[in-house]
Amino acid sequence: METTLRSFSRALSRALVSEEVARSAGLLQALDPRARLAGMLALVVAVASARRIAIVAALFLIASALALLSRVPMKTLVLRVWVVVLGFTGLIALPALFTTPGNVVMRVAFLSITAQGLQTAGLLVLRVETAVTLTTTLVLCTPWTHILKALRCLRVPTEIIAMLAMTHRYVFLFIEVAQQMFESRQSRILGPLPGVEQRRLAARTAGVLMSKSIDLSNEVFLAMQSRGFRGEVHLLHDFEFRFRDAMAITAFAALAIVAIWLGR
Q1: pLDDT: is 255 or 179 the higher one?
Q2: What's the rounded Cα separation, in Å, for the pair 221 and 166?
Q3: Which residues contact 257 (CB under 8 A, 6 or more apart)?
Q4: Is the dihedral of CA 213, 147, 150, 42 positive or negative?
Q5: Phi-psi label, residue 155: left if phi above 0, alpha if psi -120 to 50, beta otherwise
Q6: Burial environment of residue 70 by CB neighbours within 10 A (0 to 12, 13 to 18, 19 or more)
Q7: Model confidence at 16: pLDDT above 60
Q8: What is the mean pLDDT of residues 117-126?
Q9: Euclidean distance between CA atoms 127 and 100, whole angstroms
Q10: What would the mean pLDDT of 1-14 be, rounded to a whole number?
Q11: Which residue from 186, 241, 182 is spatially nearest to 209, judged by alpha carbons?
Q12: Cα–chain center distance at 83
């Protein structure tokens, strides 16, 4: 339970860091949110389409440069993106080292690692690292409500916008509620609990939290409907599309087209 509490606290602190980065004066923050979203999506499509590892590596360097110029902390990139993606995607790509036929470059016990397997696994890991770096940079440099409004400008259905908005809003609320529940329970317990009792306690807490989430979702849905919410995102701050935003979209699109062409 203590580990869970620390995880909740870390999640909340990361959200605060994201707000600070979005308010800072960086490269992406100076652009219209629609230009940021369209540009990053174009680069993600280029990363997914490129088949040459050198092109994907070049896009990774560009993504890292964009993040640093947008004042995203290097520690955040390393700990929240690169290490996590490397661990998760590395496990998925690991079998490709041994199962991909080709020229054998190394033998580990009775298994053979091929050059083609190394290239396939490296391409997968690097592609995911680059795509996640781009999307994380976009999310950190843009307030969540601006992303939703930009998505709506790109004709994303209102149902998806509403689902994303509600999920982002209430996941933090339920994290806080769960943290309070754990603290309340912890204050009434003397000494450590056996493992079985800890698992039983965690299961009860999860059940209560799910029941609360269902009740709250119904109440919020009815309240929003009664206030006229139909999925559209309205902000006090209107987007202003300027000449530099058009130039940025053109640059992102040209870079994506060149990467797709060279990465065939």
Answers
A1: 255
A2: 10
A3: 46
A4: negative
A5: left
A6: buried
A7: no
A8: 86
A9: 18
A10: 60
A11: 182
A12: 14
The residue assigned the tokens 């009815």 is 222
Taking the C-alpha atoms of residue 184 and residue 200, their distance in angstroms, rounded to an integer, is: 16
- pTM for the model: 0.75
Q: Regarding beta strands 111-114 and 104-108, do their DSSP bridges make them parallel or antiparallel, or are they unpaired? A: antiparallel
Per-chain mean pLDDT for the chain: 80
Other C-beta atoms closer than 10 Å to the C-beta of 38 total 20
First to last CA, the chain: 50
Residue 58, amino acid: A
